[in-house]
Amino acid sequence: MTPLDLLHISIADQRLYGFAEGRLRLRLPVSTARNGVGERNGSGCTPRGLHQVRARIGEGLPAGAVLRGRRWTGEVWSEALHARFPGRDWILTRILWLSGCEPGVNRLGEVDTFRRYIYLHGTPDHEPLGVPLSHGCIRLHSADLLELFPQVPAHCAVRIEEAACPAWAAAALD
């Protein structure tokens, strides 16, 4: 299978569209920031613009592996664990850590996506997708992230835009 070379995240659609050689290969529901879009450090917003996958974390870990500080805690998410830590922002299964590509927009200074620790990461399956609820990251269900992760090489382009993508939302996957 040809690796994906572009992930396009539509804030309006709350969808990730994966492309390989210009062909739409993947469409997944996501959840972006509850606070909307924005690039400033501490904003809790999802950054816009062109990014790249700077690091791929979690290969080989079990589905539901709990990650804190980009390291596996040794825990696997469960309802019981969730009940013990109800306020935790769960980062599960895998991380695709983003780095901005546009100096002054999403790279360097107070708008640096990488230093803001903005990821694509797993979230518990009972968490709703298709609605903005994150603290800035892009959340996916673990099964979807397990499908996506092996198709995304380091340095894969990631574009995050506010606009809806009706043609891609309705298009057949290639």
From TrEMBL:
The keyword Membrane does not apply. Keywords: Cell shape, Cell wall biogenesis/degradation, Glycosyltransferase, Hydrolase, Peptidoglycan synthesis, Transferase. InterPro entries: LD-transpeptidase, LD_TPept_cat_dom, Transpep_catalytic_dom. The active site is at 121 (proton donor/acceptor), 137 (nucleophile). Signal peptide: none annotated. GO terms for molecular function: glycosyltransferase activity; peptidoglycan L,D-transpeptidase activity. It holds the Pfam family YkuD. PANTHER family: L,D-TRANSPEPTIDASE (PTHR30582), L,D-TRANSPEPTIDASE ERFK_SRFK-RELATED (PTHR30582:SF24). This is L,D-TPase catalytic domain-containing protein.
